[in-house]
Amino acid sequence: MIIPRPRALDSITNAFSTHPIAALLGPRQCGKTTLAREIAEREPSTYFDLENPVDIRRLSAPMTALEELSGLVVIDEVQRRPDLFELLRVLADRPKNAARFLILGSASPYLVKGVSESLAGRVRFIDLTGFDLGEVGAEKCGQLWLRGGFPRSFLAIDDSASVAWRDDFIRTFLERDIPQLGISIPAETLRRFWTMIAHYHGQVWNAAQLARSLGTSENTARRYLDILAGAYMIRILPPWFENLRKRQVKAPKIYIRDSGLLHALLQLDTFANLQSHPKFGASWEGFALEQVIAALQTRDAYFWATYAGAELDLLVRAGGKHYGFEIKYADAPGGGRSMHVAIRDLRLEHLWVVYPGHQQYSLDDKVSVIPIDSVPSIKLASRK
After folding, report:
1. Is pLDDT above 50 for 384?
2. Count of alpha carbons within 13 Å of 34, Cβ hemisphere only?
3. Got the DSSP string for 34-93?
4. pLDDT at 114
5. Which of 9-13, 14-18, 87-91, 256-260 has the highest mean pLDDT?
6. What angle do CA 356, 359, 363 make, to 5 degrees?
7. Side-chain-side CA neighbours of residue 258 (13 Å)
């Protein structure tokens, strides 16, 4: 079964209207290759998969292999050949460049040295996650939350098969994918750290506490966090600061980006087990937060909190304006003092309360309660 992903396809098409190179980035197995092959079938194209020994040999002399090509050139798992980035810069700068390059990567530019520097001004980055609610439909919300958005996990024949796939994914990621990036950390050490992060999911980062639990230094704990974030496994949600006479939280929040992987790390294989777990509310918060970020296609996302107790789960900036999101697992969430403090202090244009129900209603002119299945239809003023 193939689930259409028109928004991602449009993003790639739009990228080529302004740049000779488009970089489709996201975790392994999130559907990048399927998208790339769908695009490649529409026009003359050449495909290189750097996990295929035949394609690796084809690129043994990369200039010879690439310089005469025209049309669309797709290079999958490009992080395995960082030496190609400088060559792509040369090819993209040719006066009569006849090729467009779509490169697919499973690590962020910050983790693969040289991407941003070599291709600055020539590449447009497009982030891809697993399936989101706008793609699978509102009726599949519970399944998407429990299993996560990785296509093979979400589309598994039953929950047991989904759990097995996620367990295998975690093992392969730690034992094969991380070493391929040139990172030498024992798989069990990184798995232990990743599992600890799952137990801190939705909390403010505390390097000292994590380091003590892991028996290592704070710098080492931060390095492990950056590695997992760079491989799209963890979201580091930065804090937002205002010039206020209030003590504001200055450390980021940390989330496991895919709810299915969070549940696998916590060994939660059924919805009943999830409902009885202490991380039930935090799991919903992280799931809903990822749906909002995916729907708005934004990188300009933060949280806000003060030591006096005021907080905002998600702050998004667009068109010079601020918009807020509170995430509640409740039948009929209401307002609260914290929301009004956030609206006033952060000068929010509007605040949405996202919950798992089905009715949409207003609390006042600046606060709306919306079901999570309405998140894909949210339009910010600058995006209309």
Report:
1. no
2. 19
3. HHHHHHHTTS-EEEEETTSHHHHHHTSSHHHHHTT--EEEEEETGGG-TTHHHHHHHHHT
4. 66
5. 256-260
6. 100
7. 30
For 281-320, the DSSP string reads HHHHHHHHHHHHHHHHT-S-EEEEEBTTS-EEEEEEEETT
Over 243-281, what HEC string results?
CCCCCECCCCEEEECCHHHHHHHCCCCCHHHHHCCCCHH
The mean per-residue pLDDT over the stretch 183-194 comes to: 95
pLDDT score at 242? 86
User: Which residue intervals of 103-231 are DSSP H helices?
Assistant: 115-118, 133-136, 141-147, 151-154, 159-172, 178-180, 187-199, 207-214, 218-230
Provide the β-strand partners of residue 123: 21
- Using DSSP's 3-state secondary structure scheme, residue 10 falls into helix
Report residue 13 CA to chain centroid gap.
20
The residues with which 22 forms a beta bridge, in sequence order, are 102, 124
With beta carbons less than 8 A apart as the criterion, state whether 325 and 350 touch.
no
**282-327 pLDDT tens trace:** 999 999 999 999 999 999 999 999 999 999 999 999 989 999 999 9
Domain covering 147-383: architecture: Orthogonal Bundle (1.10)
List the domain boundaries for the chain: 6-127, 147-383
Q: What gap in Å lies between CA 278 and CA 261, rounded to an integer?
A: 17
- What's the rounded mean pLDDT across residues 333-353? 94
Structure confidence at residue 83 as a pLDDT band (50, 70, 90): confident
Tokens representing 65?
Answer: 């292999």
Confidence of residue 97 (pLDDT cuts 50, 70, 90): confident
Mean of per-residue pLDDT scores for the chain: 93
CATH class, 6-127 region:
alpha beta
The DSSP annotation for 119-137 comes to TTTTEEEEE--S--HHHH-
How far lies 338's CA from each of 88, 312, 344, in Å? 50, 8, 10
**HSE-CB for 50 with a 13 A CA cutoff:** 19
